[in-house]
Amino acid sequence: MNEFDQMYREVILDHYKNPRGHGVLEHADAEAEGQNPLCGDEVSIYVAFREDGETIDEVKFSGRGCAISQAATSMLTEMVQGRKAGEVATLDKDELLEEIGIPLTPVRLKCAMLGLTTLKVALHKAKGTPLPEGLAGFDELELS
Amino acid sequence: MDAQAIRADFPIFEQLIHGKPLAYLDSANSSQKPRQVLDAMTEFYSTSYANVHRAVHVLGERATAGLEGAREKVRAFINAPEAREVIFVRNATEGLNLVAYAWGASNLGPGDAVVVTELEHHSNFVPWQYIAQRNGASFLMLEIDDNGDPDVSQLEAIARDHTVKVVATNLVSNSLGTIHDLGPLTRWAHEHGAIFVCDAAQAAPHMPVDVRALDCDFLAISGHKMCGPSGIGALWGRASLLERMEPFLLGGHMINSVRYEKTTWGELPHKFEAGTSPIVEAFGLGVAVDYLSAVGLEAIESHEHELVAYALDRMVEVPGIKLYGPPADRRAGVVSFNVEGIHPHDVAQILDMQGVAIRAGHHCCQPLMHKLGLAATNRASFYLYTVREEIDQLVEGLHVVRKVFA
């Protein structure tokens, strides 16, 4: 398998071309915008909770970005459905990286993390919990 | 000009990238360095290094001569009247910040305006936006017209409503490669008593730049884009303006005398060069200037025009490609493009795997990208060591990109 088949493997291209959870939630319980100043990519994340106000019922996202960022965000929407907000707000990034399953250079790692980081900001904002270190100080998220 | 022979001066090409020959099409981002510059800097460190301007010993004298010799070379390169008007800075960004802070902060106030264009690099946009807003002055942007040129029809209204103090624009656009005719803007600035600040970071590597012919008041260049080391650039300013300006960075070397009650500033250029200078970097920039001058800036410019014409011809072969920017004879060696439906990051990544280095992003030109309705573009850029084979490699690579995303 050559290198670009590895990075752009079938599942990545599938999520990119047919993103799950693409769209906007009109009455979201949590939402945030994130951008990657390196490339200008933007993503908005919308979350709806179940009646318990804690379990994630649905995640949608909109925005524009490269195949890696869009596919990673698409996978993320599936990964976190039915999980607790508190747990996802502190989700280890390795869990998502494992799901993505491709080698990423440091620059592309930022692309892959845009959706997750934005989702975490949305959840912390909704719950009124302080943003963890690294995200602190960013009301509207900017990865640098 | 023999680009193949020039290429042999650049050791970076003596390697394979991902098993392929390197097609380095990212020179507008930063240029590669010839052996002449690298060897001269190593030699300088090995035989002549010490701090400058204050050592009595022989190494101090050699180092000072190296630094001041470089200043004179830069002066001649941009046809400036006096070497003391050439301030060494880290890069064009720092030079433009120097003007914005040391001139702008003392001369801008309510009712005044700073005018830039939509084509600016952030380096000539953000400092002016910041200082203008901090001082209560207006920050105005000339939008581009359908040809991608700044729309000068807005000038009359601007002058009616404001006291124009600064007009700041680039000579060559780093994102589209457009070579601007600055004459009308410079004349307009001076008619209204404004200073004209020229960002020549993208121009100086590629064409002759002459501060007297441009009739500008300040001009900034970056060494790393013109075969010199990173960490060094130059700001030229008219002595009459520099002398009346407040300093920018304060500390050692920039003083005349320091007392508890009061400090007085040194003479030009020292007033603006606080702290130990990037001595060897400045020396390396001088060697780069020698190298470029020996090849000839006119020759480099026409080589790039040929490459752009060839690239535009070849790239239209790629289905779904969209090319941005002016015709080949009006641009420096820059081709910005998109491949329909494929994000620039993905294009650049797949090209990299084939040994082709391009830039993907907003090129530090977010206002322009916003105007074009884009988040990002791909940009292939050329220099004196670029050969047609690299453009062929790019075009082949773009076909592979399309296959991966088919």
How are the secondary structure elements laid out?
The complex is a heterodimer of chains A (144) and B (406).
Chain A: H1 3-7, H2 10-17, E1 30-36, E2 41-49, E3 56-64, H3 67-80, H4 85-89, H5 93-100, H6 106-127, E4 141-142
Parallel strand pairs in A: 1-4
Antiparallel strand pairs in A: 1-2, 2-3
Helix pairs in contact in A: 2-3, 3-5, 3-6
Chain B: H1 3-7, E1 16-17, E2 20-21, E3 23-24, H2 35-47, H3 58-77, E4 86-89, H4 92-107, E5 112-117, H5 126-134, E6 138-142, H6 155-161, E7 163-170, H7 183-191, E8 195-199, H8 211-214, E9 218-222, E10 233-237, H9 239-244, E11 255-258, E12 263-265, H10 279-295, H11 297-315, E13 321-324, E14 334-339, H12 344-352, E15 356-357, E16 359-361, H13 366-371, E17 377-381, H14 388-404
Parallel strand pairs in B: 3-15, 5-6, 5-7, 7-8, 8-9
Antiparallel strand pairs in B: 1-2, 4-10, 9-10, 11-12, 13-14, 14-17, 16-17
Short description:
The complex is a heterodimer of chains A (144) and B (406). Chain A has 144 residues and is of the alpha+beta class.
Key words describing this protein structure:
heterodimer, A: 144 residues, alpha+beta, Sufe protein. Chain: A, 4 strands, globular, B: 406 residues, alpha/beta, Aspartate Aminotransferase, domain 1, seven-stranded mixed sheet, 17% strand
